[in-house]
Design goal:
The complex is a heterodimer of chains A (156) and B (308). Chain A is mainly β. Chain A has 2 domains: 95 residues, Aspartate carbamoyltransferase regulatory subunit, N-terminal domain (Alpha-Beta Plaits, 2-Layer Sandwich); 52 residues, Aspartate carbamoyltransferase regulatory subunit, C-terminal domain (SH3 type barrels, Roll). Helix content of chain A is 13%, strand content 34%. A 5-stranded antiparallel sheet of chain A has the order 2-3-1-4-5, with helices on one face. Chain A starts with a helix and ends in a 9-residue tail after the last strand. The chains are: A mainly beta (156), B alpha/beta (308).
């Protein structure tokens, strides 16, 4: 694909954040985790199944808002290879890979129906994140139940 | 080691050093627990006992512990009569009750309830069981019983019954791994201990063997820890009968056992230990229930800052 073809699909942004290398097909979940577009007044563009060097990927571009690394790290649960690029005046000024956080709050719902976090108590769900094994594991801070599969299905 | 104002939520937060300290304090409490010595260690203190599901044994053991130390007990009546049925959250209940008491004992049907309570209460929470979650004071009294009636270091122990769902045995296995225990797990295949827990306790230094017959293990162990198998785990009553009869301790089962073998059970039992066994020196389960009192006395004294 030529640069012009790419440009016609989604144009470069002047200022803001580009989240690149999102696992293919997960861009809309990434938006949900980040509370977008509600949390941004700028234009948000989404590319799904874009061609990258390592195969298909998704890309999200958020204009006029610089996301902080800590905000974006939460998406590492479903897109562990994503990168965050801060754009100023059409140039990438910062580029970072998302880091899998050791603790997440208010992102995922506990799969245990008898967990106190799934009741009307004034608390948000909390999980310790374990990355020691091949697969990512979330351990509920309240009941200890482990979620190791289908994390995306249990997003709040 | 500082226990004052600490919540007691699960065994996960206890190091071996902390466990040893609690057990040592409990030992000093024993004569008071037996009523042979009077104490006013917690005089002027109030313990709120909130049980959102029934458990007579644990509740009266906590209440006795508090009364033996000269303190007072504030008991929540039945849940039906309380504001819970009016829809009050546990968080609000905690914020109210912490103004009335110096510590709160909580039993709740939801897993994680004690953790939540600790986030809202300004006084220490002692978890007396949260659903299928944690019950740390049961584990501590089990450890205390093993220490008093046998020995902890390198203990050879067999755990029999429902090892899949039984929170008591999971928590006990974790705690025993601090002491390099040799653990034999006895259960039918459908109720065996989850692999994840076995690999965890092995990684922590315990040695684990699995079998499905008490006879295979009984000759070699210092302690046999029995648990109840719940009928409702088996869709077929005949299957339950088959499993239950295989995991039963009788005089015959004990023929090859060491003379110093101790049999423990968290109680209530159904028919997994024959009544004849009660009169043998092996039977230790009623003493185990008593040991809950000095252990809970130690915890109450420690978290309320009356003992260092």
């Amino acid at each position: 694909m030529t640069d012009i073809e790419t440009e016609l699909r989604v144009r470069r942004i002047e200022n803001g954040t580009v989240i690149d290398h999102i696992t293919s097909g997960k861009a809309l979940i990434v938006l949900k985790i980040l509370g977008l577009p509600d949390s941004s007044h700028g234009v948000v563009s989404v590319l799904i199944n874009s061609h990258g060097v390592y195969g298909k990927k998704d890309v999200v571009k958020i204009e006029n808002r610089e996301l902080k690394a800590r905000e974006v790290d939460r998406i590492a649960l479903i897109a562990p290879n994503a990168t965050i690029n801060i754009i100023r005046n059409f140039n990438v000024t910062h580029k970072n890979k998302v880091r899998i956080p050791s603790f997440v709050e208010g992102v995922v719902e506990c799969i245990n129906p008898n967990c106190i976090s799934n009741s009307n108590e004034p608390i948000t769900s909390k999980f310790n994140v374990n990355t020691e094994d091949e697969y990512l594991k979330l351990r509920c801070f309240y009941c200890g139940r482990v979620i190791s599969e289908n994390i995306a299905e249990n997003l709040l | 080691m500082k226990f004052k104002d600490q919540h007691i939520i699960s065994m996960r937060e206890f190091s071996r050093e902390m466990i040893d300290h609690i057990l040592n304090v409990a030992e000093k409490m024993e004569t008071i627990a037996q009523g042979k010595q009077k104490s006013d260690l917690l005089a002027g203190k109030i313990l709120a006992v909130l049980f959102f599901e029934p458990s007579t044994r644990t509740r009266i053991s906590f209440e006795t512990a508090m009364l033996r130390l000269g303190g007072d007990v504030l008991s929540l009546g039945s849940v039906d009569a309380s504001s819970i049925v009016k829809g009050e959250t546990l968080a609000d209940t905690m914020r109210v009750v912490d103004g009335y008491a110096d510590a709160i004992v909580l039993r709740h049907p939801k897993e994680g309830a004690a953790q939540l309570a600790s986030e809202f209460s300004r006084v220490p929470i002692l978890n007396a069981g949260d659903g299928a979650g944690h019950h740390p004071t049961q584990t501590l009294l089990d450890l205390y019983t093993i220490k008093r009636e046998s020995h902890l270091e390198g203990i050879k122990i067999a755990l029999a019954g429902d090892l899949k769902y039984g929170r008591t045995v999971h928590s006990l296995c974790y705690a025993l791994s601090h002491y390099g225990a040799h653990i034999t797990l006895i259960s039918p295949k459908e109720l065996s201990m989850p692999d994840e827990i076995i690999s965890d306790i092995v990684a922590r230094g315990a040695k684990v063997v699995e079998t499905d017959s008490i006879e295979d293990a009984i000759n070699d162990v210092d302690v046999l820890y029995m648990t109840r198998i719940q009928k409702e785990r088996f869709p077929d009553p005949a299957e339950y009968q088959k499993v239950a009869s295989r995991l039963k301790v009788t005089m015959e089962t004990l023929e090859g056992a060491k003379p110093e073998l101790k049999i423990m059970h968290p109680l209530p039992r159904v028919d997994e230990i024959d009544n004849e066994v009660d009169d043998t020196p092996h039977a230790c389960y009623f003493k185990q229930a008593f040991y809950g009192v000095p252990v809970r006395m130690a915890l109450l004294g420690l978290v309320m800052g009356a003992i260092e």
